[in-house]
Automatic annotation (TrEMBL), chains A, B:
NCBIfam families per the UniProt record, alphabetical: HAD-SF-IA-v1, HAD-SF-IA-v2, HAD-SF-IA-v3, HAD_type_II
Functional description taken from the UniProt entry: Catalyzes the hydrolytic dehalogenation of small (S)-2-haloalkanoic acids to yield the corresponding (R)-2-hydroxyalkanoic acids.
InterPro entries: 2-HAD, HAD-like_sf, HAD-SF_hydro_IA, HAD_sf, PGP-like_dom2, S-2-haloacid_dehalogenase
Protein name: (S)-2-haloacid dehalogenase
Entry superkingdom: Bacteria
PANTHER family according to UniProt: HALOACID DEHALOGENASE, TYPE II (AFU_ORTHOLOGUE AFUA_2G07750)-RELATED, HYDROLASE, HALOACID DELAHOGENASE-RELATED
A Pfam entry, by short name: Hydrolase
Family: Belongs to the HAD-like hydrolase superfamily. S-2-haloalkanoic acid dehalogenase family.
Keyword terms, alphabetized: Hydrolase
Class of enzymatic activity (EC top level): hydrolase
E.C. numbers: 3.8.1.2
């Protein structure tokens, strides 16, 4: 294959969404872990549900709404400040440690992000983590007012970069995003951050489980949606090897 | 309001989806509880994702795929027989104890089901539980090849029953389904089976939680999707009071 562009999912792929856990724990002692998991689960549910309902609101709204839902469900009272401090972290998520080096190694191919994030959220995040110096484009699904895995979202890659689907390597750690990209016709690399062995081992004792284990069980293993990735790697650092190989 | 038809969601509303837990535990000792929760969570995710991907497969396929996913993630090996025994339960789910009496009390209004279920699944379930004697129609989203909460799904009510949206009381225990029905323009009653107080109480200890608690936290509390129900009741038996009141 002749890959002209490598396009990355942002949340969970280049950026560690679990890195909000420290801020949530600080704001809501004893609840950081469960907030982090329920929030992320609901955030994505809301993107899918709003898309299906034809009631699009951008990812900034969905991110706030899903956090408000989470805190209400857990019975937590809070000041506006605590809420804003947690939300603010979404503009300062931690990059995965190998992200910057992987991007550099993939040049001179075109490099871009395709994300559910709103333009404002993405631009701030990319700037705050200095990826703006490396990326050719930061593409938000907001232009189509529908979220991934709608084909309309993946179509933005070609529209923005001038590439055909088979000239693109799309990279995501999110199994549903892998299926969506593959269903659209992109080459897809899946970053498999939780191995099946580690997953099964975490589920040996199932009467009580860590919220993170439930999150992993429902959102980190390859989905049964009829579309498998072309490449399955453990880390971003393996990507240059795929393209050259 | 002048309600001419009362239309029910099936899974979770008239039928107790948690009633699969005995069969899953019997087939996979020690794992019944976590299988039940992960399976249901993924089953709905797959309806939303397939709808968004424009890769519809009917609910029978989605139900099998989500169970296969669940067993794989948990690292469970199994014989075809065990799998089929669990799937078979979906045709014999338990009715909520007050379902039949509530339907009888709501006559002579038109009574129907609008469900994600495939026609074969729904017809078998309704027949097995003797609701076929009470229902005027069992409507499957399959006719539109898209799942709830797409407006196309709720539109089937008017097409099948000849009712205007404001002549219908739609009843669901699923918060996302309540939002979808309301967004479409129906009158909506939400069966709130888990109170906010009980929910918060279950989440006081959050380091380790029961899989059922995680399920409840993400799928039983009213969602932040911008659409609230017209009526909030605790049980199906309260419905006749709403309509007469």
């Amino acid at each position: 294959m002749s890959i002209k562009a490598v396009v990355f999912d942002a949340y969970g792929t280049l950026y560690d969404i679990q890195s909000v856990a420290e801020v949530t724990e600080d704001a809501f002692p004893g609840y950081g872990e469960i907030i982090t998991q329920v929030w992320r689960i609901k955030q994505l549910e809301y993107t899918w549900l709003r898309s299906l309902m034809q009631r699009y609101q951008d990812f900034a709204v969905v991110t706030r709404d899903s956090l408000a839902y989470t805190l209400r469900v857990l019975g937590l009272d809070y000041e506006k400040d605590a809420f804003e401090r947690v939300i603010e972290k979404y503009l300062h998520l931690d990059l995965y440690p190998d992200a910057t080096a992987a991007l550099i190694a993939l040049r001179p191919r075109k490099l871009a992000i395709l994300s559910n994030g709103s333009p404002d959220m993405l631009n701030a995040l990319v700037r705050n983590t200095k990826l703006d110096r490396l990326l050719d484009a930061t593409i938000s699904v907001d232009a189509k007012r529908i979220f991934k895995p709608s084909p309309a979202a993946y179509q933005l890659i070609g529209e923005e970069l001038g590439t055909a689907p088979d000239e693109v390597l799309f990279v995501s750690s999110n199994p549903w995003d892998v299926a969506g990209g593959k269903s659209f016709g992109l080459n897809v690399a899946w970053i498999e951050r939780v191995t099946p062995e580690a997953m099964a081992l975490a589920c040996v004792e199932t009467e009580l489980v860590a919220p993170l284990t439930m999150f992993k069980a429902i959102r980190t293993q390859m989905d049964e949606l009829g579309f498998a990735p072309d490449h399955r790697v453990r880390a971003l650092s393996e990507l240059p090897g795929i393209i050259q190989g």
